[in-house]
């Protein structure tokens, strides 16, 4: 049985990765600091669902720990013979990174460095880093992994660029097998409340006006969370050093997302527009040929189906979701 460390395990993507790993009989060492960047009720709910998984009693161990704390990480990891680390822990959110850039660098860059050091010292030969499509700002679409990503337009993107660069250094110096996955606008049930899909669903259901930055014509390559998790696990195989996009390869306008939410909720939204934020990207679109070639992966869930699943989850969980701060 392979032993996998998953950081950010109570996060949106990390928890989905953990569920799929449990389904495949991996042993998981789950790490999360449960910070309050967004409403912790969502993290607690995701963690509880993991603990209720039919294989969790034998295969799931959770530690409340911050990846910035190297001593605690070391104490945890030296207890196990670990086969790989999947780093899903990060400070996320473009706009908030402008207000608090220091914490983005300490978590996304220094925390990443701590995990690379753990790999080096404990002979863990596989490291997966969750990165971001935000690095492609200003590049021609659809975005390919070979494009230069040297002009980050937010501290968040810059911190992820730093993490990628350090991961390559450890591959070069210590032969660490590194796969960097650039995710594209991940959404789905129990998503992040600072992102448009869950915010717009909640606001539409409760009749609160939707705050939209720009006119709604900007596009995103919305990618369903279970597709992302599936691709992440496929990347556990040895590959040397690779950067791979995981995206839906089908960009849609924000206005279409809103229309689908209205259709699935049966409610008309109220829209309030604000100026487009200069740290946001106007459009994203993933070229996923490399993921298909190297991982045998392609997205399976359309935006229509993904929104329907997300709305259904919100309605079924409305007793507590309505209290979640967005």
Instruction: State the share of residues found in helices, binned by percent.
Output: 40-55%
Side by side, the strands of the main sheet go 3-2-1-4-5-6-11
The helix/strand class is alpha/beta
Number of helices: 13
Outline type: globular
Strand tally is 13
According to CATH, the fold-level topology of the domain at 3-186 and 225-248 and 285-301 is Rossmann fold
Q: In the CATH classification, which architecture of the domain at 3-186 and 225-248 and 285-301 applies?
A: 3-Layer(aba) Sandwich
The CATH class label of the domain at 3-186 and 225-248 and 285-301 is Alpha Beta
Mean pLDDT figure = 97
Q: How do the helices and strands follow one another from N- to C-terminus?
A: EHEHHEHEHHEHEEHEEEHEEHEHHH
Cα distance, first to last residue? 39 Å
Per DSSP, what share of the residues sits in E-state strands of 2 or more residues?
Answer: 15-25%
User: Could you give a short account of the major beta sheet?
Assistant: 7 strands, parallel
User: Nearest-angstrom radius of gyration?
Assistant: 19 Å
């Amino acid at each position: 049985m392979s032993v996998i460390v998953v950081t950010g395990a109570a996060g949106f993507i990390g928890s989905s990765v953990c569920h799929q790993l449990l389904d495949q009989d991996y042993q998981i060492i789950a790490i999360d600091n449960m910070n309050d960047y967004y409403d912790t009720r969502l993290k607690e709910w995701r963690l509880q669902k993991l603990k209720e998984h039919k294989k969790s009693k034998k295969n799931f161990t959770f530690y409340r720990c911050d990846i910035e704390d190297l001593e605690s990480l070391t104490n945890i990891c030296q207890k196990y013979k670990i086969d790989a680390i999947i780093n899903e822990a990060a400070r996320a959110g473009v706009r908030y990174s402008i207000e608090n850039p220091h914490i983005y660098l300490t978590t996304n860059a220094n925390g990443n460095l701590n995990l690379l050091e753990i790999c080096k010292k404990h002979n863990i030969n596989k490291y997966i880093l969750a990165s971001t499509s935000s690095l492609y700002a200003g590049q021609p679409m659809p975005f390919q992994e070979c494009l230069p990503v040297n002009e980050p337009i937010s501290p968040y993107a810059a911190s992820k660029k730093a993490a990628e660069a350090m991961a390559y250094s450890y591959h070069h110096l210590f032969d660490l097998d590194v796969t960097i996955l650039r995710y594209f606008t991940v959404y789905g049930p129990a998503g992040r409340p600072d992102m448009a899909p869950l915010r717009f669903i909640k606001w539409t259901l409760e009749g609160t006006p939707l705050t939209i930055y720009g006119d709604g014509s900007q596009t995103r390559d919305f990618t369903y969370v279970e597709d992302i998790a599936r691709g992440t696990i496929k990347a556990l195989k040895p590959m040397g050093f690779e950067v791979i996009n995981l995206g839906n390869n089908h960009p849609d306008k924000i206005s279409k997302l809103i229309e689908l939410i209205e259709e699935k909720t049966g409610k008309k939204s109220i829209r309030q527009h604000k100026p487009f934020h200069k740290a946001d990207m106007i459009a994203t679109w993933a070229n996923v040929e490399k993921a298909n070639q190297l991982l045998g992966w392609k997205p399976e869930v359309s935006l229509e189906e993904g929104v329907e699943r997300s709305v259904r989850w919100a309605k079924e969980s409305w007793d507590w979701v309505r209290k979640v701060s967005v």
